[in-house]
Amino acid sequence: MTRELLIFEKGYNTAKNNFIPKMDIKGIDLDEILPKSLQRSEEINLPDIPEFEIVRHYVNLAQKNYGVDSGIYPLGSCTMKYNPRINEITARLPGFLKIHPLQEENEGAIELIYNLGQQLCEICGMKAFTLNPAAGAQGELTGILIIKKYFESKGIKKDKIIVPDSAHGTNPATSAMAGFSIIEIKSDENGELPLDQLEFAMKGGDVAGLMLTNPNTIGVFDRNIDKITEIVHKYGGLCYYDGANLNPIMGIAKPGEMGFDIIHLNLHKTFSTPHGGGGPGAGPVGVKKDLIKYLPCPQVIKNEGGLVCVEDDGSSIGRMRSFWGNFGVLVRAYTYILALGKNGIRRAAQNAVLNANYIRTQIKHKYSIPYDRINMHEFLVDVHLPNGVNSEDVAKGLLDRGIHAPTIYFPLIIHEAMLIEPTETENKRELDKFIKALLDIYEEAENNPDHLRNGPYNTLIGRLDATLAARKPHLRD
Q1: Could you tell me the residue ranges of all domains in the chain?
Q2: CATH architecture of 85-339
Q3: Residue 439: is it exposed, middle or buried by C-beta count within 10 angstroms (0-12/13-18/19+)?
Q4: Cα separations (Å) of 170 from 49, 137, 275?
Q5: Any idea which architecture 346-471 has in CATH?
């Protein structure tokens, strides 16, 4: 297959192919503007290409890419859902798009921040939210730093955080960044947190809190959640909710009512903003009443005079980033919530659960389901197909059929894991297409396994040597 040329390789040797003439402003002494050390000594090496060819080049690349606008994107643990275009329209309104971060007197933006915080409090059962963190991982760190500040302010030494093996991979990393040691607890045969092991870990008296995702990363809702938070509180700990999996319970169950004290959300997952490739994101953090004073400042509050921004009085953990996080993401989330309303939010969650369970029940006669119970928004498959066909082979087989592959080899508690999350936005026709592809791959594993092992065949790039690619990557080819 012919390799796609880079834009630099398409440059012409002839000059002035673009219609914009070179600037001819005279009388400017560059040395007065920039010191010599910051000036170029040679011409910048940019390709000289006509505008129409530049446009064609990038449009062509975009058409080769796969995204949520292309088809089903069942990436487990990530909620890659369709993003309604109304979100994009509101985010691009001039008053939002062109606002300068220092325009704190902009009442419309401040009102949106306040209202969104109130909506998130209602959905999650919290008393206050900060919209300062820029992404989910930074939201996690914010929550853990609040836990740390809480105990430090009381003069209590607690230096451990409990993280189940079914948690998101960032949870132990975040705890370690904040200076905590990690206690890992393995899930039981139902994919839930064993109460006896939790109590044993808490009895030491040095555990500051528990980081838990519910439903967890294998798509299981822990039925003992009330007892779990009760145990942590009994020994003086705090309960932290990783909100990455809020999508299947929003509008139905509130983490605050489960006993959680702190929650971070991924607005770019649950509340519909395009994400991936490093951004954009937003990771608001919500807390119960006793923890409000530790939230990053400034905070938007309402008093007799209206909405005001309150600065740090010495209690806050401090800013997590400049200004108000990624404001465009906040606008999109606000639009999404207003557009759906209370009933729509609930219905989206119900459809996410329905879609995942529909796929599970249609493939479980061929694929091994390690936790074969009613799941939430996603479910875990342990891929052991005939003739040694594994998760990677199934993923490549899906790519050959024009379908984005689910997450594979995560979570680590299942070696040949394939984590499937269809989200609420896919209709039955698309789900059936995905199911048929999985069943066809099973049949191919029985009759022609070598064909699967050598795929994909219909993509721009065939199967790579994953080990070599990780150790000796060629990032420019």
Answers
A1: 7-64, 85-339, 346-471
A2: 3-Layer(aba) Sandwich (3.40)
A3: middle
A4: 43, 7, 17
A5: Alpha-Beta Complex (3.90)
In tens, the pLDDT along 266-315 reads 988 899 887 665 567 899 999 999 999 999 988 888 888 888 888 888 89
**pLDDT tens across 315-354, in order?**
999 989 887 778 899 999 999 999 999 999 999 999 999 9
| Distances from the Cα of 400 to the Cα of 65, 113, 440, 462, angstroms | 14, 44, 12, 10
Supply 240's token pair.
Answer: 């932290």
b/e map 291-324, b = 16+ CB within 10 Å? bbbbbbbbbbeeeeeeeeeeeeeeebbeebeeeb
* Rounded-to-integer distance, Cα 325 and Cα 101, Å: 10
pLDDT tens-place string over residues 387-443: 999 999 999 999 999 999 999 999 988 999 999 999 999 999 999 999 999 999 999
Measured CA distances, 429 to 248, 359, 433 (Å): 21, 12, 6
Beta strands in 344-429 (DSSP E): 379-382, 407-408, 417-420
Please give the model's pTM, rounded to 2 decimal places. Answer: 0.90
